[in-house]
Batch of 2 targets.
Target 1
Amino acid sequence: MRCIKALIVLIVLGALGGLALIYSGLFNVAVDWKDPAPIAWVVHSTFINSVKAHARGIAAPASFTDAQVRAGFLHYKETCVYCHGGPGKDPGDIGKGLNPEPPYLVDTAKNWQPNEIFWIVKNGVRMTGMPSFAPVWKDDDIWNIVAFVQKLPTLKDEEYARMEQEANAPPPAR
Ligand code: HEC
């Protein structure tokens, strides 16, 4: 009986503490402080395991064509590079001010399977800056992006710069 009373007191105290935190404004919502290590571990592990579980049923194409990689690059340089940077490219102003920091995909893309990258780009990641692109792109567009993102770890700075030049070049005169 004493145990139950102690438990009820603890629950009530916890709830009061939670309410005090919400209403006092003491919690600092600014992005410029990092989560304590145990919380960062919980959040990051939940993210990784959630993506792996949800992407399990998605079948990726066995391989991608060069045309898909080029089409994916056009989306990447317009949309993703601002947050994630690219070979020889720093992220833009938006990417520099986010918490969690957008990972540098040139280093991290190899940690993910194609179906997992597809899931992340399609669905986004809650409570981070990673948007869902489902409202704007069809699955085929997203597979093109996956085709390009997979190339990032082996793409040299010069190759990325050359792809940018080719994309910006005016169409040949007729
Ligand atoms: C507004 C900023 C923003 C944009 C634009 C953005 N992302 Fe992200 N992205 C993030 C953030 C922040 C994370 C980290 C999420 C986390 O840590 O849970 C992330 C995570 C990812 C991851 C997982 C990487 C890892 O190593 O954990 C992939 C893959 C990814 N984004 C791909 C893309 C692609 C491809 C695009 C463009 C179509 C894109 N993102 C556009 C902010 C952005």
Target 2
Amino acid sequence: MIYIPKEHSSVLIVDDDPGICEFLRSALQNFGHQPQIVQSGEEAIFSLNRDYDLILLDLDLPVLSGFEVLKFIRSNQKYKHIPVIVITGDSDRSSRIDAIRFGANDFINKPIDLIELQVRIKSQLNLKQAVDEIKFHKENLEILVEQRTTGMLNLLREVQNQQEKVHFSYLDTIKTLALSAEFYDKTTAAHIRRMSMYSELLARKLGLPDKDIQIITHASALHDIGKIATPHSILTKTGTLTEDEWKIMQKHTIAGYEMLNHSLSDYLQVGSQIALTHHEKWDGSGYPHKLQGSEIPIWGRICAIADVFDALTSVRPYKRAFSNEEALQLIEQQSGKHFDPQLVKVLLSVQKELSQIQEKTLKFQKIDSL
Ligand SMILES: [Fe+2]
Ligand SMILES: [Fe+2]
């Protein structure tokens, strides 16, 4: 915005001498200003709410003196910026010093010289205009900064909302994918649920960052998603698989990886790594790539142990459910062979939490068996 100065400055004349008041009124009108006259200090204070550019103030006023008026103006936030020229016939030096102390900007002596009056008024009005212009730009700048800040905050909020929406749609995608795999594979919702909770527990006890814990909690549901690509006849075969069938079965790891790895989502990216590596073994005897030790991503190592623990403690068509103690004993025997030894230690240290998860997911078991 552009600053437009006033066409006519508004000047307050405060003097109890009607002759001086008239003289000043006529002079100011001739200079092109708009004068306003009051003849007492009280009236001066009452009229201050008008927007004056300059005050010409007599010090010798009855009742409320010019000093009091000056003091009031300078102590009031709203008026303190108005320049004041003191008109005095007083040649007393101490009055002038007091006037300066109280905040006078300049003096004019009586009798008033017209040229001197014009020069002093012009100089004070120029200063006032410069101050007003700075004030105007400062206020506009503040408004502009506030508008921009509000705009930025709204934008940020919008981005956060969008991110949240994307986040939840990825979680929806995971749930939908996991559900479709369940339908096909007859894997139960309870298995997926417990896998997810065991993985979360292990990741937390291992000290993984919160974000990673959140990711594995959801992404672990996708470990067997690749089974969608496995022929149903092989998945549901009750007898032992032939060598060729076993090779096809093993491909569910690669199929799951290929289904998910093109995604930009951290959840689906980790899901693809889990799908690919949850059958790898610590000693390198797993599949599909015979990875060894820490070559297997931590996601795959966690899901491997969670998956096997749940399989051991669940009823399957070919076996009874082992107790937690029996399952943990079998897993301990596989420390450094099938499983990451550090994770085996962690699993053995959280037996109470494992039982709590099993109790919590009992209701899912019931729903599954309906
Ligand atoms: Fe699997
Ligand atoms: Fe599984």
